[in-house]
Amino acid sequence: MALSKIESASIESSITLTSPVIGSWTTATRPASPSTGTTGWNTDVNRLESYTGSGWVFSSTTISYTASYLIAAGGGGGGGAIRGSGAGAGGLLTGTTTLLEGTTYSFTVGSGGTSGSYTTTSTTNNKGTNGSNSTAFSLTAIGGGAGQGGDSFGNGIDGGSGGGAWYPVNSGGSGTAGQGNAGGAAGTSPPYGGGGGGAGQAGGNFNSGSGGYGGNGLASSITGSSVYYCGGGSASTYQDDSGFAAGLGGGGIGRNAVGTTVGIAPSNGTANTGGGGGASGNGGSGVVILSIPTALYTGTTTGSPTVTTSGSNTILVYNSSGTYTA
């Protein structure tokens, strides 16, 4: 017998429609012995996943997620000749970016600049060369500015951080905004040269008897422990071993100004820190570091990055150029 309109409306009003309810869990708290086809929401990755009988698989929907990065360019090479100025550190960029699943991201790690040649009598312009840029995620960290040397009578060279200036009274090179600081100024008395700038501090001006110190870099805990990157190189000193303060973050120490047997030898910027070279020292190479949620890490890389974990994140350290596929 057909129902009347009133009877149909009464029955419909007594039925309550509800959305199906599925479970939710983290990767660590998934069901221990699920049935094939069990489906739930993984709150670690904000994505639906199902159990196939042999393992968990995510839904086919493309997702995006956030990763942290550190990009350091190569440090500049220090100035040479009898005395020289310190080189600027490579530019430093840190922050977060959005990675799209299935997309391959390429990274370029910049090399350090070379120092000006050293002799005990040279009066030529023996400035170093700038460090090379590092790139990632359409961002470019600028290579460190070279140190001046010889009788170049020059301002410091611009870069990620600026190189130190040289005799008589010149200005340090400029740093790149948001990446580094200026190099130190030169003076009229030995040893004349300024220190290279660092990511966190400008290079020191000359001080009678010692060259300018290298500016400190900045500390980052992206790898799970606090490490300084992109320190400036110090200028040469004069007839003593004072004034060799290289910048924290891989900055190099400047050569003693008088001969190859007096005082201490120069040092290069530390590799894969972006440190600037001390006077007569080479710059340190750069580095690209990523911190990715471990639950989303694919393991698809080129360039042989160093892979570690810290808490719930996987850390990729690229000491040379490479790629990561999200």
Structure characterization notes:
With 326 residues, this protein is mainly β. The protein has two domains: 22-61; 63-326, no CATH class. Helices cover 3% and strands 23% of the residues. β8 (134-136) and β9 (139-141) form a beta hairpin. The longest helix has 9 residues, at 5-13. The N and C termini lie far apart (62 Å). The model is unreliable at 3-19 (pLDDT under 50).
List keywords for this structure.
2 domains, 5-stranded antiparallel sheet, 326 residues, disordered N terminus, mainly beta, single chain, 1 helix
Integer average pLDDT: 86
Low-confidence stretches: 3-19
Percent helix, as a range, is: under 10%
Radius of gyration: 28 Å
Counting helices, strands and paired strands, the structural category is: mainly beta
The SSE order reads: HEEEEEEEEEEEEEEEE
Largest sheet: 5 strands, antiparallel
Number of strands: 16
Map the helices and strands.
Layout: H1 5-13, E1 23-25, E2 39-42, E3 47-51, E4 56-58, E5 64-72, E6 92-100, E7 104-108, E8 134-136, E9 139-141, E10 218-220, E11 227-229, E12 287-293, E13 300-302, E14 306-310, E15 313-318, E16 322-325
Can you summarize this structure?
By secondary structure, the chain is an all-beta fold.
